[in-house]
Amino acid sequence: MAGRPISPRPLSPHMTIWKWRVHAVVSMTHRITGNAMAMGAVVLFLWWLIAAATGPEAYALFLSVATGWFGILVGIGFTWVFYQHMASGIRHLVMDTGQNFDLAANRASAFTTFIASVVLTVATWAIIFTTKGF
Amino acid sequence: MGAGTELGRVRGLGSAKDGVHHWWLQRVTAVGNLVLMLWLIFSLVRLPSLDHASVVLWLRQPVAAVPMLLLIVSVFWHFRLGVQVLLEDYSHGAARVIGMLALNFYVLAGAAAGVFAVLKIALGAA
Predict the structure, then answer these.
(1) Going from the N-terminus, what domains does chain A have, and what CATH number goes with each?
(2) N or C: which end of chain A has fewer CB within 10 A?
(3) What ipTM goes with this model?
(4) A54, B34: Cβ pair inside 8 Å?
């Protein structure tokens, strides 16, 4: 913690002290999912595009990795990560307009982001598995 | 509030000379991402096959290539702003400067490579 003066004063309560509520979990998940996509999914997206632009051999290598069990696991994982970031992002946009600050409604929308992301991930991959044949 | 003139406050410019520009662009690109990413997922799921020929044939159409180029700009801009917030919160001093430089190089190089790949396919060179 460069630049922070060392003082004997007590620190503010931190993550280990606050009671974890769903709002906090959604907020942290939003940051983690966003940055995970920036570092991970973006690289895979570029690999896919560049392989397609390079030619059939390069693309075949991408497809063999992507449709292997580990590739599908990563694909399902990033699909959930995307939908979760999308759902909590929409919640943020609603809150930016000054709505959804009532405690019960806010907690409900926080829960809803997790339900929506799981349902959308299952639906997306159900369609992929039934139509793409892998 | 208190330091600064009424005009400066109206303009939303503090000592950072930036105001809400970062915040606003993150929202604008968020809406762009929402539309374009859902378009991408729908398009890929609806493709009969994800083999090389199908993907290239699909991306050769202007109705696919243009949204894909917009998606790259919107998504890369959005995560450039988001990772900046992460660096500002958790890194300090020289590490932050190096982190921001690395982020900028990563975003620009990645976006350029992505745009080039789309154009190469769309213009019939792949």
Answers:
(1) 22-132 (1.20.1300.10)
(2) N
(3) 0.88
(4) no
